[in-house]
Amino acid sequence: MRPTKRLTKSEGFASEVDRRKRLGQFFTGVGLGKILAALSFAKHASSIVDPMAGSGDLLSACLDLGARPKTVGAIEIDPVAYEVCRNRLVKSSCVLGNAFDPAVLARLPRCEWDLVITNPPYVRYQSMAKGAGLHFKLPGAVEVRNGLMAALDGMTALNEKDRELFRALVSGYSGLADLAVPSLILCASMVSVGGRLALVVPESWLSRNYAAVVHYLLLRWFHIEHIVDDEHAVWFEDAQVKTTLLIARRVERRSGAFDWGDGDMFVRARVSGKAMGPGGPVARLFPGKKNSEELFAVKVRKVLESNSGFEEELTSASLVSLGRVANNLKRTCSKQKWLSVVGEKASSHPETCCVPLDFLERWLGEANSRTLVSLADLGVSIGQGLRTGANGFFYSRQVFVNKKEALVIPDGVPGVNEVMIPLYCLRTVVRRQSELPEGFAIHNKDLMGRVLDLRAQALAEDIKEGGDLVKKLYTPMPKSLAVFVRKAAHANFGTTLKPKRIIELSAVAPNIRKGNPVKGIPPRFWYMLPDFTPRHAPALLVPRVNGGTPKAWIVADSGVLVDANFSTLNVQEGTGLDVYAVLAFLNSTWCRVVLEHTASVMGGGALKVEATHLRRIPVPQFEDERLHHLSKLGRRLAENGSGLEEIDQLVASALLGRTAKQEETAALSRLAEEGRIRRGRKKEQKGV
Question: What pLDDT, on the 0 to 100 scale, is given for residue 147?
Answer without folding.
Answer: 96
